[in-house]
């Protein structure tokens, strides 16, 4: 149904039937994952179409500059001395804008779109530029026209936002394709880095990991503890020990058979509930076919008021149904964020077209011998946080990775352990890690990676170790 609606809306847009300023986004929202704003003024939808291509490419936020007094068809007739002609002839004209950009301060880059009116940007663009502080923001102008080039319409705007970093503008013909816009964006020497790809590691301390803001709006620590294979008292003690060491992110799953123990350790820790982030997962098979029960079972077993994040353990029959059931629990406030585990590029696009809430996180096998060099940036571009299970390579492979000459030499140079080097490498490439351990010394060591950093050369040396070698079947 959503797809039919989407096609209908595209057809309507092509025939200019949409209301000026409507935003028909049938994709799940990415939330605050991006720092890109696409602000545009468009009266007959030509510029809007380009703005939407830019939105698709950058996953930025679309903002329409809507005039307080709409332009009628007569206003737009040029060479008639109509409203548009008169405004263009008056350099001091500042047509008022209806509404404002929310949180302008969070954007680093502003694509600014307008139609060419008598060789220049419409005066409402001047109103827009004078309404905000663009210091340290990059502005990328783009325009559409009947036939004129961009001329000096972009450079003439510079004095209105003198502290911005202005990029040369680009004119597009009506009906320019998505791929042409994509090529233009690729050609700009700009880096579009979603928030989820770069962690604020300078703000971390040993024993206190910084957080990343998920597209759901919640904050999650970038380093935690995995509890796979920990059971009974060993599990309770490991989680307690982790919490005492400052770990605030705990990963469990129905399949691990230890949700009760994790919940017990969280409740008994004395740490305020909202300071701890707990992830659990439901499993394909009977849990996916009866997801409401599976989710309620997890809530009951953990018994910690709410679950911070629930994942589908891996793709399987009824996964969309299971995800949609979790969405209902999100609406009720019993679960805060949703994610996926063992999901790859082949599966993600089709999956997100069928659900309403964009996944906030994907947890996959990632380590120096299986780095997912294509998957990680792909998911980051969707605003999805990446998280590594088996961050050290997994059972039977850990010592091989720790003794790897490159890693061991880097560890020696920084006077840290190989485990610390590998964790720091994960974090510096924007991957959250959840190393599993029941050894209090190792747990402490694992949360102590904030007193050193790896150089670009060291990061590249570890990147070169990739063997595309998976250590588990998922
Ligand atoms: C008042 C006015 C002046 C215009 N002046 C020019 C012009 O100088 N050169 C040109 O090629 N097109 C000119 N146009 C055409 C628009 O630039 C063109 O149709 C544009 O793509 C419309 O964008 P929109 O649909 O986003 O409003 C003008 C249009 C208007 C309304």
Structure description:
- The chain has 474 residues and is an alpha/beta fold.
- It is built from 18 helices and 16 strands.
- It has 2 domains: 21-187, Flavodoxin domain (Rossmann fold, 3-Layer(aba) Sandwich); 195-463, NADP-dependent oxidoreductase domain (TIM Barrel, Alpha-Beta Barrel).
- It has an 8-stranded parallel β-sheet with strand order 9-10-11-12-13-14-15-16. Strands 1, 2, 3, 4, 5 and 6 form a 6-stranded parallel β-sheet that branches.
- Helix 5 links the parallel strand 3 (109-115) and strand 4.
- The model is unreliable at 1-33 (pLDDT under 50).
- Bound molecules: flavin mononucleotide.
- Flavin mononucleotide binds at residues 42-48, 76, 78, 84-85, 115-119, 144-148, 174.
Structural class: alpha/beta
What is the C-level CATH assignment of the largest domain?
A: Alpha Beta
Rg (C-alpha, Å) = 26 Å
Give the total of beta strands: 16
Instruction: Enumerate how many helices there are, as a single number.
Output: 18
Number of domains: 2
- Ligand types: flavin mononucleotide
Q: Going by CATH, what is the homologous superfamily of the largest domain?
A: NADP-dependent oxidoreductase domain
Looking at the structure, the CATH topology of the largest domain is: TIM Barrel
Strand content: 5-15%
Mean pLDDT figure: 91
Return the CATH architecture of the largest domain: Alpha-Beta Barrel
Query: Could you give a short account of the major beta sheet?
Result: 8 strands, parallel
In helices, the fraction of residues equals 25-40%
